[in-house]
Amino acid sequence: MLKTLGYLAKFRDWRRLGLGVVSGIALTSAIAAWASLSVLLFILAIGAGAAFGALIAFSYSVLHAARKGHEQNIRRDLALNNMIQGLCMFDGRNRLVVWNKQYEDMYALGPHIRRNMSIAELLAARHAAGMLPYDPVQYETNMNAALRRGHVFTTETEMADGRTISVVNQPTKEGGWVATHEDITVRKRSDRELDNTRAFLDMIVENVPSPIIVKDAEDLRYLLVNRATETYFGVDRTNIIGKKTIDILPKGIVTTILSEDRKAIDTGEVGYQGEHGVVTPGNGTRIVTATRLPVKQSDGKPQYLITVIHDITERKRSEQKIAHLAHHDALTDLPNRTAFNECIDATIVLAAQENESFGVLCLDLDRFKAVNDVFGHPIGDALLREVASRLEQVCQGAFVARVGGDEFTIITPTGQQPEAAEALARRLSAAFESDINIDSHQMRVGITVGVALYPQDGADAETLIANADAALSRAKSEARGSIRFFEVAMDKQLREKHVLQQDLRKAVEQNELALHYMPQANMDGKITGFEALARWHHPRHGLVPPDVFIPLAEESGMIGALGEWVLRTACREAASWPEKLHVAVNLSPVQFQHGDLPSLVHQVLLDTGLSPARLELEITEGVLIGDFTRAVAMLRRLKNMGVRVAMDDFGTGYSSLSYLQSFPFDKIKIDRAFVCNLAHSQQSATIIRAVIALSRGLGVPVVAEGVETEAQRQFLAEEGCDAIQGYLVGRPMPIEGYAELVGRVPSRPAISLTARA
Predict the structure, then answer these.
(1) Helices marked H in 432-460 — which ranges?
(2) Which of 466, 454, 436, 463 is CA-nearest to residue 362?
(3) Prediction pTM value
(4) What is the CATH number of domain 503-756?
(5) Which of the residues in the chain have pLDDT under 70?
(6) Of 102, 103, 93, nearest to 144 (Cα)?
(7) Sheet with strand 285-296: strands edge to edge
(8) 357: how many CB neighbours lie within 10 A of its CB?
(9) Which of 110, 139, 414, 699 could be 134's S-S partner, Cβ–Cβ 3.0 to 4.6 Å?
(10) Domain limits of the chain?
C-alpha cells in the first residue's frame, strides 16, 4: 500500500487519472441505478467506482511507462553495442553499472563480468585473463587519484597479443565515471608506418649527395636544406634556415637566382638552369646546374619551391684535367705527341694559306742513357723535367712537345727559313752547354738536332716528321751534339729503309730467314752449347747484317714474330741433338714490352720437347731500362721454369752492377769490344779483371765473347774466366757444320785449345 502511495506521489498524468475517476463513477452509477440501491449504497458504489477508475487509469499509466522504459533500454543497449569502442560505466561507489558487448569481447571477460562488481574485481578479472599488463592495485590507485581531481585518466596499453588499447576514463557529475576502450592497433601501426616512412624520406633527403633546398614560395625564405647543402654552401644549416638568398650569397649571383625562382613559381612548371658559377660563402666558387620544382596547395597556389643543385665542379675539373692529360706529357707537362700532331696539322694549313714556311726540329738528348743508368730513374726523370724547362725558356713562340723517352719535337713559327730554324737550333744547343745540377749531382747532357722545312722537305705532316727524324738519325750517326738539315739523299735512304722493312716482313712471314749456330766452350775447349744467331740472305742485297735488320724489326713491330720464330726454331733444333748441349737465344727489349713472353717460352718448350735446363735466354741491359719492375717479374717467371738467363754485352752500360743485385743471373757475358782491345788497351784488361772478380764474388759464371787468338784465351784463363766464345772456338754456321759436335755423326776427340799453342 505504501509502495502504491509512493507511486501516486510521483504520478504526473492527472488528466488520465481524472478520466479514470469519471469513467468509474459513471459506470457504477449506471449499475447502482439498474440495481435500485439505497442512497447509502449508491454513494458507496460511486466512491468505489471512482477508486476503481483511478486504479485502472493509474495501472495503465504504469504499464505504459514500463513499456516505454523497456523500449528506451533496448535502444540504449542497441546504441551501446554498436559502438566501435568498448564502454563501461561506474557509479559513485566504483560499481560497474553499464558495459557493452565490445568491452566484454575486447578483454574476453565472458562470464567473469557482472553488474555491480567493483572496479577492483573487474581489474583483477582482466589481470587474471592476461588482459591487464599493469599491477591492478597501482592502476586503480592512479585512476582514482586522477578522477577525484576531476581529471580525465587516459592510458595506452600494449597487450600481450600485440594489440594497443586506448582507454579514456571521464568523471561524471554523479561521482562515477565512464570509460571508453578503443582498439587503436591499426591506427598505431599506420602511425608507425607513417613515422617510419617520414623518417625514411628524411633520411633519403638528408643523404642525397646533391644539395636539396626548400623555400617558401611567398617570400623565398629557406625552410629546409639537407646535409649536402651545408657542404655546398660551406656553412651550417642553422645559418641558412629562415634566411633569404641575399643573406647567404653575394649580390652578384642573387639577382639571377631570384629571377629563376620567380620564373618557376609564376609558370608553375619545372625550371632548369644550365651550368653557371656560384660564389658560396664557405666553399669557394662552384660550377652547378639547378632544377626548380614548385609545389602547389590544394587550391593550386604555389606553397613551396624545391631546388635541386647538381654540383659539377669536380667533374669539370676532372674533364679539364683529363683534357690536359690527353694532350700533355705527365712527367714534363709539355704537349705530347697527340697535341704535336694537332699543332703541325694546323700549322701546315696556316702556312699554306699565308704562303709561309716553318721548320720541324727533332731533338734527342745525348748521354741521357748514361745518366739514367748511373743515377737511376728518379734522377733521370728529374733531368727530363729540367730539360723541358730549358726548352720552354728557349722556345719562346715555338711549339715544343715531348714525343718519347728523351725525344722532343719543336715546330717553329712561320717565317724566314732556314735561318729561323737554324738560329733556334743553335740557341737550343747553347742552352745545354752548362752543367745541370740534380739533387747535388752535376751532369752534362747535350742535344742532337735534325731539321726539316715546310714545304720543301714535305708538304704534309707525315713526310715532314719522317724527314726531320731522318736528319736526326744522320746527325747522331755522324756527330753527337750536331745539327743537321734534311737532304734529298736522306730521303733516298729513308725510302730504302722502308723497302727493306717490307722485305723483312715478307721474309719473316714466308720463313726465308735461317739460323746459324756459334759454339761456346769451356776454357779447355770442350763445347758446352751454341748461341743461335738469325741470318737474312736478301735476294738482291745479299747477306743483311743482324745489326741492320734487327733494329728494323724492332721499329716496325715485327720483332715479336721474328723472335718467336728464332726461339721455336732453335728449341726444335736443340731438342733433336743426341748430345744434350744447351742452346742460347737472344731476346730483344721490345719482346718484354708487349705480350706475355714467359707464356710463349713455356708453350715453345712444350711444343718442341726441349728441357728448360738446356735453354739459355740472353738479354741486354736495355730489357731492364724501360719498365724495370715488369721486366724483373718476367725474368723471375722464366727462371722459375728452369730456364737459364744470361746478361749479354756486360760492361758496355753503366747500371750493370745494380741489375746484378736485382736479379740472380745464371751467366755474365763480357762484351767482345773489351776482348778485342786486350792487346792495346790496359783499360780493357782492367775492366775484364774487374768483371771476372765481381762474377766470382757473386758466384756467377763468366763467358767472354769475341775470343779470336790464343793470347786472348790465355789471358782469360789466367784471370779465371769460365768459358769463351769466338772465332777461336768456331764461327757461326748452319748446324750441319757442327753435326759431329751435336752427336749426329761419330764423335771425334774434343779439340784441345791448349794444344794449339
Answers:
(1) none
(2) 466
(3) 0.45
(4) 3.20.20.450
(5) 1-81, 373, 489-496, 626, 651-658, 746-757
(6) 93
(7) 222-225, 212-216, 302-311, 285-296, 271-279
(8) 19
(9) 139
(10) 2-80, 83-188, 208-316, 328-486, 503-756
